[in-house]
Amino acid sequence: MPYHLFKCSECIPERGKHAVIKGPGEDLTHALPLGYLNTIPGSISERGCAYCGAKHVIGTPMKDVIHISHGPIGCTYDTWQTKRYISDNKDFQLHYTFATDVREKHIVFGAEKLLKQNIVEAFKAFPHIKRMTIYQTCATALIGDDIDAIAEEVMEEMPDVDIFVCNSPGFGGPSQSGGHHKINIAWVNKKVGTVEPEITSDYVINYVGEYNIQGDQEVMQDYFKKMGIQILSTFTGNGSYDDLRAMHKAQLNVLECARSAEYICNELRVRYGIPRLDIDGFGFGPLSASLRKVGMFFGIEDRAEKIIAEETAKWKPQLDWYKERLKGKKVCLWPGGSKLWHWAHVIEEEMGVKVVSVYTKFGHQGDMEKGIARCGEGALAIDDPNELEGYEALEMLKPDIIFTGKRPGEVAKKVGVPYLNAHAYHNGPYKGFEGWVRFARDIYNGIYSPIHQLAALDISKDEIPTDRGFATTRMLADASLDPEVANDPNRCEYTGQYDLVKDLRSRTYPEFPRKADAAE
């Protein structure tokens, strides 16, 4: 077993079994780190807790709901606005966050009275919102507040409102994935089957495990609607509370993020006989295969094929342009969860980059199995890394860019490595055919950014270049001088640049020394 113990973690030898370097010819029996275990004491983990997994990941994307945390104010602030779960009701769930603000006196004497007062105040403050989700935190779970009883009491007094209680204290699992499970099961137990929907199509699905990050879900919904499919509910991006109560009437559960939402799909299959179909909206190949699978289920493959043909013809030339310029660039794929296997192979295949590392902060063994299986030799796989291990990995691997969250991403920038936000995106959406080109464009911009190149210079000794020294400018100079090509709206990088290219081509641009060259 090719375990890798980071030097910074030699004082925590157990960490050695949580990192693996995939060797020549090795399969999953030889290259799988331990995962989904309690964080080892002494390792400053970047994980979220079970409460975070329930509220921040699954619950908050519901659009017409007051999301209130029963606990200290810090729990709510930590799970507010850190992802771009947009919605079509003016992003109500992003603009406001609610908490009971439990303090020391409430821990001693109980906080049930405080909770009821906050529930009533919230509904009065926003009379157009009639639905609420209450999330339990560690503090109120430990003192034993009966949140369900308070919710029932309020609903009796205010019959036009409906309240969902999610008992998801932070200690409810080894990571935020434990919270995913809790809210999935609680929703199907308490709310599914309590509303009867209007069926308007012969083909009806629930779109599950999709959270509408920067409009991802809207892209996929457009494809389904073009195929004549009715989307009964979305769990939970831009999802309506009452629509999600009607999930039991779908003919098929289309599952995107298996790590966060497979639990409810499995329960709906057991209780209501609704089959589950896993899909992937990232990448031309996986997306095409996914649309075909959904089409085959309903016997409308021709509709899927029409969409695939039109979108591929429109966007593939642009993707190929980026692939040529990204070929061989080294990438650390550190998204935290299921994107490590959604992206691991397809970005190599369709964008030409090389994945040199994958990690997961809260994923299960299945996530790591799929991620490592889709990586090549020499890839470093890490479970639940801490900040120092991330530093050391960057120094060892020397990637051109990493895909990760804001906290490790900002750390990477300090050592001169650009990052793309894998959780909330930089300029999404990234799903769909156009979205995948947009992702490639963001990678290209991150790697070739003039600002990033300046940041890598040592101003005490390196020459400071003008804009003439950057790779992007030189690439413009090498572009075609054919005005029909240079001004082609489908060539997104050089649109309308004919005069600029002509001017740049007439000059010569010296290669400015980089820090690495100077050291040699």
From TrEMBL:
| Keywords tagged on the record | ATP-binding, Iron, Iron-sulfur, Metal-binding, Nitrogen fixation, Nucleotide-binding, Oxidoreductase
Per UniProt, residues of the Nitrogenase/oxidoreductase component domain are 49-447
InterPro entries, per this entry? Nase/OxRdtase_comp1, Nase_asu, Nase_comp1_asu, Nase_comp1_CS, Nase_Fe-Fe_asu
PANTHER family attached here? NITROGENASE MOLYBDENUM-IRON PROTEIN ALPHA CHAIN
Q: Its Enzyme Commission number? A: 1.18.6.1
Protein name, entry field: Nitrogenase protein alpha chain
How this chain assembles, per its entry, is:
Hexamer of two alpha, two beta, and two delta chains.
Molecular-function annotations in GO: nitrogenase activity
